[in-house]
Each structure stands twice: as C-alpha cells, then as structure tokens.
Design goal:
The two termini are 27 Å apart. The longest helix has 18 residues. The chain folds into 2 domains: 175 residues, Rossmann fold; 67 residues, no CATH class. 39% of the residues lie in helices and 23% in strands. The protein has a 6-stranded mixed β-sheet with strand order 6-7-8-3-9-10. Strands 2-1-4-5 form a 4-stranded antiparallel β-sheet, with no helix packed on it. It is α/β, with parallel strands linked by helices. The chain binds adenosine-5'-triphosphate and magnesium ion (MG). Adenosine-5'-triphosphate binds next to strand 2 and helix 1.
Length: 260
C-alpha cells in the first residue's frame, strides 16, 4: 500500500489580531520530496512551519503528518509522532549555556529516549554525520563559526532519527562556499536517511540544488506548487521577482531543473 503523504495541509487559515496571514492554504508533501517554500518576508513561512510541528495552531483547517491529524491520539502517540520530525529553526537557536554535545543530545534527554551512555554514542554519531570532529563536542556555541553552528543545529535536528526534516533558512548567513557544502551535506543525508525535507529559503542556489518541488506562498496561500523548471516559468509577480537574476543570467534553467 502506498504511504500516506508526509504532510497534508487543508484549508489553513491563520491570523494574528487583524493581520491575516494564511487563508485557505492547501499543500501536500509526499515521502522523499524536498520542497522549498518561498515567499516574501512576513508572508507566513515560519508560521507555517510552526503549524506543522504544533508550536502554533491555525484558526481553521487541518494539519496532518504521516496521515494522522497532528494533535490526535493520547500523549504516548503524540510523543511517537514528535520523534518522527526534526527542525532547524531560522535563528540557529542553539542553547548558549550548553556545549555542542549537550545541544545535540537535548531532544534525546527531553523525550527521555536514551540513557546517558547511549546519548553519548548517539551524539558522537550525529557529529560525524554532519562532518564535525569529536573534539568539537565540548565547544560552547560562542566558540563556533556560523557554518559550524548550522551543522550542530542540523545534528540536533537529526538526533531523534526523524523521517521529516524542517529547515528554516538553512543557508542564510553562510558565504557561497559554506552554503554549497551545507547543501551537499543536506542532499547526502537526505539520500542516505531517506528523509522528506521542507525548507524555507531565500537563496536561489540552495533552492536550485535541492528542490524536487517549490511552493510559493503569496496572497495568503500557496499560489504555485511545481518543479523548479515550471516554477521559474510561472507568471506570478513574486515568482518573476524572485527568479529575476536567474532569468537575467540566461541560465539554462531547464538543464538545472533536470539535475535536481
Ligand atoms: N506570535 C506572533 N504574534 C503576532 N504576529 C505574529 C506572530 N508570529 C508571526 N506573526 C506575524 O505573522 C506574519 C508572518 O510571519 P512569519 O514569521 O511567518 O513570516 P516569514 O514568511 O517567515 O518571514 P521572514 O522571511 O522574514 O522570515 C508577520 O506579519 C508577523 O509579524
Ligand atoms: Mg521566517
């Protein structure tokens, strides 16, 4: 039997006071996809990710993860569901008072899924997974470069061995080389761990390199949901502006789209 969609959003409406952010938003993400979510600043991308993990709730509509309503079931069932996704927040969000190993192990302790020794082993494995050295485990966040912070945050998002990874601006603030190597890392992990990924990004190179589909959030809903190639060809003014540099470069978009 075919697996249910990893994410199903139906009729999502969100507002903060008089600020209407989403209105009748629909979206489905299938297993193994890498979906890039783009949209103007303040269009509601981070809010949508927060809905997906139950940090906030829409006023109307349903959020289903792995075929089940997000908040259905008893506490035990919700804890099981919680283990199936990992999140890299927009602001990196490492705990500044905890060292690298404690940051990575935090979700394991929070959900009490492993003992002290197991946590040490798991943390070591996750550090290797994001290509950091064992001696980095004892560094404090203030001692890390921007690229290292992203890797530690990614290792923490992978701590619970999730099936779904949500990344909010994973390459923001990285120089082009670091950004490219972080993208390679994400792609390699996605293939190796069979992850489904939703990422929010403003970065065209990241989007081009990773996306199986692109969702465009504008006018409070998803106005386009298509392959990179079809998205770039779209007529919506936000899409036109976003991809202007690509179109101006005269890049061979069709070819790049095929490589994704
Ligand atoms: N907790 C909150 N209380 C009130 N308003 C909020 C809250 N969270 C978000 N908003 C508002 O919702 C809108 C969408 O915010 P959100 O952070 O989702 O945007 P975004 O698309 O992620 O933007 P950016 O690209 O700048 O990160 C904004 O107008 C923001 O001010
Ligand atoms: Mg945001």
């Amino acid at each position: 039997m075919r697996a249910p969609p990893v994410i199903e959003l139906h009729g999502i409406a969100t507002r903060f006071g008089s600020n209407i952010v989403h209105e009748g938003l629909e979206m489905r993400v299938e297993q193994g996809e890498i979906v890039s979510l783009i949209g103007g600043s303040g269009s509601g991308k981070t809010t949508l990710l927060r809905h997906l993990i139950g940090l906030t709730r829409p006023h109307r509509g349903t959020v289903k993860l792995f075929g089940e309503p997000l908040l259905s079931g008893d506490m035990a069932e919700q804890r099981v569901r919680r283990r199936r996704f990992g999140v890299l927040f927009q602001q990196g969000a490492l705990f500044s008072a905890l060292n690298v190993a404690e940051n990575i192990g935090f979700p394991l302790r929070e959900l009490r899924v492993a003992s002290g020794v197991e946590i040490r082993d798991l943390v070591a494995r996750k550090l290797a997974m994001v290509e950091l050295a064992p001696e980095h485990a004892l560094l404090m966040p203030a001692e890390l470069s921007g690229g290292m912070i992203k890797r530690v945050a990614l290792a923490r998002a992978l701590a619970l061995e999730p099936e779904l990874l949500l990344l909010d601006e994973p390459t923001a603030g990285l120089d082009p080389d670091l950004s490219a190597s972080f993208v390679d890392l994400i792609r390699g992990l996605q293939r190796r761990l069979h992850l489904t990924i939703v990422l929010v990004t403003h970065d065209i190179d990241t989007l081009m390199a990773l996306s199986t589909r692109v969702a465009v959030l504008a006018e409070r809903r998803i106005v386009s949901y298509a392959s990179v190639q079809d998205t770039v060809a779209g007529a919506h003014p936000f899409v036109q502006r976003f991809f202007k540099s690509v179109l101006e470069r005269g890049a061979n978009v069709a070819k790049q789209g095929d490589q994704c």
